[in-house]
Each structure stands twice: as C-alpha cells, then as structure tokens.
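Could you help me review a protein record that somebody else here produced? Do not assume that whoever made the record got everything right. The record follows directly below this note.
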Amino acid sequence: MMKHMKLKLIALLWVTFAVVCTWASDSVVWHHPVVGYTHSIVEVTKVVLHADRTEVSCHVHYPSGYWIQILRTTELQADGRNFPVRDASGIPLGERYTMPESDEVDFTLTFDAVPLGTVKMNLVEPGGWTVYNIRPEDYRPEGMEDTYWRDVRTGDWFVGFSGDGVIYDGKVWSVVSREERRDGHGQWVIAYGGEQLAVEVGKEKRGTRRITVGKEPAVECSLITGAALPDYPVEDLREGFKDNGYRADDSVTIVGWMKDMPAEAWEKGRSVEILRNNIFTDKQESFVAAMDSTGRFSVRVPLVNTSEIYIDIGRKGINTVVEPGETYFLLHDFSTGHVLFMGEDVRFQNELQAHPPLYVDGYLRKGQGTVDEFRTQMEEKYRHAVEELSRRVGEHSNLSRRYRYFMESFALTGLGRSMMQARFAVPDWQLPEDYVDFVRTKVWQRPPKPYTLCQNFGILMRDYIGHSSKAKDKARGNAVFNAFKRLRQQGEISMTEEEANTVEAYQLAIKELQEKLNAEPSDSLRQRMVVEFGKSDLGQRFISLFKRFEDVLNEEVLADNIDFWKENAESAGCDSILCQIHLARNLYRQIDNIRKPLPDRMMTKAEREIRLEGGWDIVSREQEKYVAIQNRDLSGVGSLKSAEDVKDVTGGEALLRKLTEPYRGKLVLLDIWGTWCRPCKEALSHSHALFERMRPYGVVFLYLANGSAEDSWKNVIKQYDVLGDNVVHYLSLIHI
C-alpha cells in the first residue's frame, strides 16, 4: 500500500513538473536585453516572448516639451520575418507624445508573436530608426566564434575570438589556423607583426575555460555575456586620477575595432570621431581616425590632463575618461553589443560602460517657469542621481572609489552647469543672489580634480565666473573711454581740450543711445538709429580720434584686461590653477575675437601670470598664427576696395546701386559681416566650398564688413583666403 502511494505521488509530481514546464514554455523573459547597435533615443529595457504576442518595454530620455512618436508601421524583425506592432501602453501609438518635465518616459509595445526560441531580433520603424541585434543578456553562443572572455581572478577582459581575428594584449591578431572541436575547445594559431602564438582553449567546466596563450600560464576565464564587463571580483581603493599639471605635449592613444557594423552604421562614414573639450580654449575639439574595411582604427589624441571624451558619437556614442600617457584598446561589436576596454589599467573605463554616467541636465527657457521652479526641478534630478548612485554602490559593492568619485563629480557638475545656464533666460542675465549662492556652496566649492575630468566643468566655469563678474564689468565702464583718460593723464597721447570733450560727449551719447535701443521694439528702427548715430558729426569726430590713437588704445585696454580677468577669477573663489586657466581662456578668446596679434607688452605680462605649460602653449601658438597672417602682404590684391569710393553716397538704395554698378548683368551675392561676429567668421571659413558650388553661375561675391578694425578685417580675409577675381570687399568706417 505504501509503495502504491509513493508511485502515485511520484506520478503527481511528474505531472506537476510537466505543467510548470508548459507554463514556462509559454513565455520567455529577457530582463536586461543587450543591443548591438542603435542611433535611436529608444532604449530597450525588457523583452517578453509569449505564445500569442511579444512585448518590448522601452525607455526614452529626451528634453521635456519636445515630442516623440512611435509609428504604427513599427515592427520586429526576426528569423527573416516581420512582426507588426499591435498596440502600445504608456504612450499613444501613432500619435505625438510630448515629453514630461522628468525628461523620461517608459512604455511597452506589443507585437505579433515572435517564435519562443528566438535569440536575436531588430526593432524597426521602416524609413526611420532601427535598434539592431537585441538579444538576451545571458545568451551563450555555441563554439568560440564572437565570444569574449575575462580573467576570473582579476576581472579584466583577457581575450576575444572572431573569425576575423583574435583580440589579445590590446591588439587584433590574425588567425593563421584554428582547430575547434564540438564544445569549442581546441587550438587557435594567431599572428601579429611577425610573431605567432598558439592559443589553447580548454573545455568549458561549470561556466569557465582554461585558456593558455603562448608560453604564459593558463588563465581561468568566464564568458562575458552582457554588453559590458560584470563586477570586478576585487576592490580598487585607489583615489584620484592622473594629474600631469596641465602639460602641453601629453596625449592618449586609442586603438579600436568597430566590428561587424551594419550598412546603416557604415553610411555614417568610414572614420571614428573623438570629441574632447579643450579647457584652455573653451571649445570642443574633434580628432578623426580612418577605419579600414573591417572597422579597425588607431588615433592619438592630445590631452592637457585626464579628460572625459566621447568616442564615435555619430554611431554609438561611447562616453569615457582617458588619462595622459595611456593606450586603450576599445571593442564595439555591433553584432553582439559588447563594448569592452582592454589595457594596463581599464577597470574604471569598463565600469563606466556597465554603469553609465548619471546625467543631471535641464534647460530653463524664456517664459517657461521661474528660476525658483527650475532650481527645484534640478535639485530633484540631482537627488534622483544621488539615490541611483547609492543603489548601484549597494548592489555592486566592488565599484571602485574612482568610479564613485567621478560619478559624484559628474552629477554635481551637471547640476551646476544646468543651473548657471539659466542666466540666459532671465532679464539682464542676472540670477537671484540666493540661487547663485546655492550653486557656489553645493557645486562650485567641490570641483572635480583635475579640472578637465568632467566636460561640463568648462561650461560651468565660464558661466559662474562670467555671472559673478558682470556687475563689476558694468561698474568698470567702457574700457576704451577709461584708456583715453588714463593715457592722456600719463602723457602717452596728446589731445586738445576740445578733443577730450568729444570723447566725454561720445561716452554719454553712447549710453543714451543704448537706453533708446533697449526701449525700441522695432529691429529696423534700431538699425536705423545705429547707422544715423555712426554718421553723426559726433560719431565721425570720435572715430577719427580713435583711429589716430588706435594702437596705443588697444594696448592699454588689453593690458588692463589681464588684471581685470585675474581679479574676477580670484573674487569667484578660483585657486591658482583655475585663475591661470581663466586667463589663458580669455587671452585666447581675445586673439580669436580681434583676429590679430596681441601687443608685446600684454604678452609679456601674460607670460608672467600663466605658468601652466598647456595654457601658455595655447596662447602663444594662437599669437604666432596671427603674427604670420598679419605679415602676409595683400598689396596689389584687387579684391579689397576703398570705402572712400562711396563715402559721399547717402541712402541704402543709392549705396547698393553704386556698389553693384560695375557688375551689371551678373548675379551678385551680398554678405554683410563683421570681425566681431563669430557666426560670420565661421561662415567665411567655408567660403571656398561656396565659391565652388556657385562657380557655374558666374557669381560676384560682394562682402561688406561693418564696425571692424582694418587690421582684423584684413586678417580674417587672409586667414580664410576669401579672395579672387570675382570677390570684392568693402570696410565700413561706422563704429559703435
């Protein structure tokens, strides 16, 4: 009887097990799917394959107020078949959805059922975007093809296998031969630069293999199934990043492989772009490396110190930090989704791929809320970032101290940058005192070290010091008028009482004009007021005086600026390093604005103040560039015309008729610009591309510059070689 009951119980257990298995087979869940490639803002967070439908959960991070839309033509592609979308929850299907204040939205798309055994699919909006090669995080391919293995002991990426090459020791080795048995174990013979190595791959036992390369000891390895390296097995208690003192000649080398790119990715170019902010020029700089036919590249990027960079932003957009003097190997496998770093010290770089930066960003737009509301919104975003970092550290206790420091700095810097950018949305660009005090105590007094560590810090620095110095700049008055008075008192220029009165009268008239311009809503009337003021007797007398003493006035104003910039930085709480960075930035910007060399006495004074090698190198090289440009002779060039030819012409229509009279019967392209106008100079830098496009039409290019010094005007023309038989330049003598 007892035996009979046992048999019944066993039978019941088997039936129950069979039912559970059947239930389980009715759905397959990919909790953290890996994506091979996408340039869409849609992030796939979960996939559930049911017998009657497939659900794809997505997340979008996009600025609030903007709209997104998932079209009804969206589909899944798997096993050569298309599975159309049925419905959506969390977002209306086929309609525009306006992003909320949080900048984030989660939604789920339901499709026709994809086969339960599917291990790879694409999410496609035909004619729009595609999320390629979505797969389960724990997928384990058969054999060694396209697999990547980490050292179980150290946690570092050790070796990667592909039919196109084996990645080892930061290089892609050619495959000379391979003998691979059914379970993947066997021998690969690889070669690089004349050297050959045998790679012995052991059988997989309990998820690991022993892999031996050459004569090195065997390494116990585990398969990297996710897109990035999993947690490191040991702690890293190092603190801080490499600080080279802001040198001028340091660099980082990045060797990479953009492997198995789909056609859409190749269409974005056959090169990889590296973006880095230059803290001394306050500009983002681009460095480009050509790829070979397999997607491999190598590039050397100059660095003044440890820096946050963006790699291949046109495709994946890999955000990382690099240190001077290092060499990094980067793999992005577009088929498997792996993004891995290999090198002497790449733990932090791999941690950043596994646990991406926590963005704290936002923008206050004019007429869309108050600064207090914006501050509350940004504090909330920062709080969420801090909570997320705490959660990550709690779940991944071996995250390095350097990772934690960078993430804290990144979130704080993002908070400060966003809050200070709000100054452009308020009257007179002046933020409330308590608002700025919050940025000072919360962010500014806790800057990242070195200062190049977070790209956003450069913008924060510009806005914070600029805001704190605005009131002083107003109190300082117009530097040109002060220079007139100071040089006259010092006896360096000689003026009659009548001429001195002209300077004072012009200063008062400029102030009155500015008040009228501020009160006048009409753009056309404001322009007319400026032109009439420039043509007035007072305006012409002042211009004549300014031209007479232009060189010495400019020298005085510029030399005085160094003390002013230094005082601004110190009053904003900058240490010696930041003060020197601020001075170098302003000197570089000054040369770039006036487009001619700075006076010798100003450069001598600047050299005494800027002791950072990288900062002084930037300034001196920019100075030398414009010395060379200024020394280029333009005599005899027919493109430059004298404004004297039209000085007596009054009225815009008459002036235009006079200027274009020699070119009757031809197409004339009129370009009005000034050396003070950054977008104008940017456009002129592409002038030859425009000349080529318009060549078949016999166009005459007529450039009219306004409010610009003659030397600067000529230097811009020389710098971009805006010259030719069909190119004409006039310089107006109207200055405001």
